[in-house]
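Troubleshooting log. The previous run stalled partway through. Resubmitting the same two chains, unchanged.
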Amino acid sequence: MTLQDQLEAYLTRIWETPARVTTISRIPGGASRETYRFDVEAGGRTRGLILRRDPVGSLIDTERKLEFAAFRSFFGVGLPVPEAVALEEDGAELERPFFIMGRIDGGKAQSPFSVAPYGEHARAIGEQFYGHLGAIAAADPLTLPIAEATPAPPLDGCWKAALDYWEGVIDADEEHPQPIVRACIRRLRANPPPPAQKLSVVHGDYRTGNFMHDGAGKVIALLDWEMAHIGDPLEDLGWAMEPLWCYGETDRVSGMLPKADAIAIWEKASGLTVDPAAFAWWELFASVKGQAIWISSAKEYRAGGLKDPVLGLSGWYTARRQDVILADRLAALEALS
Amino acid sequence: MTPTVPELLLGNFLCLMEPPPPESSGDFLQARIGVTGMIALLCAQEAERGIAARVWENGAIRALLVDASGGYGERFAEAATGVDDDLSLAALDASNAALRRALIDLHIAVETARDAALDTAIRALYVKMADARRLDLPPLPAS
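Second attempt completed without errors. Output:
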């Protein structure tokens, strides 16, 4: 039975009307989930949808229930977020857990390894990118569906929950000793940030490459919410500005606009302020989190029989780049006293 | 550092030898081939520089451990013993793993002692270590 047959059987059952999948193709990227675009005819109507199915091995061990809840939380509230359509945690006809969401057509996502990925539209896209992130930070997570899928840490426990999680990933998956990221983790623990100003939904992977734009300066879809959780809103801001996501650029963040401008846009949209000392902690944390992901992808690459080259490249090349960033950040810190 | 060059090149072969299902041809297959090309390109760099980087790193860590052993214990000098006679990547990585573990232990001891000078020296070594292993991906044009 092909994937197309499985989808037709599933949608026919849940919609209680014959469903016919007319086109289906896998989309590159999305290493944590297999992602397919497809069109389906049912009840005299054609819909464009996206299927996100758990792979055998993945870049990040994530809960599809969480991502689904994140889409439900922000669809229809003024942000460009696709509609959540269906979730099957036991896999149903598709054999592996999956969810289906609405498709937003007419856009493209840029590789973070591209030079000047947004060209003449960089500033306009940057204003929307950081404005949308501020809007996410401003929302009260406890009133949203995501609160049903993930715990809310105390304001003074956000940093520790995040650091404990990603250090745990490194402990579990490290296959070669990593002195640089280990030293960074010790510095973070020894110098914790102040409590979060508020609890927010943290997208978890808000960066260049994880949104679509229309090629004319408009952001049309915020994607890849698989690492969403509740925490300190500065976590997302630090991750968005991680140097890994702006290839070869030092004067702009995310390949979009100057850092000070991005922070000002975020502050205006969120109603929050960025404390420089607190943000410095979250910036270093972002680089640690990145290295944890690349360490994990190296292990998955081996465990999966070396067949996913994205995992191989992430666990090797990207890990090396992350080490350069981490070492530079660590060297720039004040001396011990 | 993982994965290794032999694994990556074997992986390139394995991921391309199986015909993809119909829904995974087109853009997905094209992107996958592109990634295998990047890996091959970077493997060429690793073949060119990888041994020299490891020999240098192992030597630098050994020197640091020996220098620090006077203040932090003979166990660090003992960890630095050994010579990299076998210049294969696998053998160099094996000795590198042991040396990195000793370096982590030393750095923790240095931090506990609030030894700012040696801490700064270790952090400077990290910068050189990361730079020596750097791989250079040619910038990709925006699509």
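Takeaways: Residues 3-102 of chain A form a domain with the Phosphorylase Kinase; domain 1 fold (CATH 3.30.200.20). Chain A has a mean pLDDT of 94.
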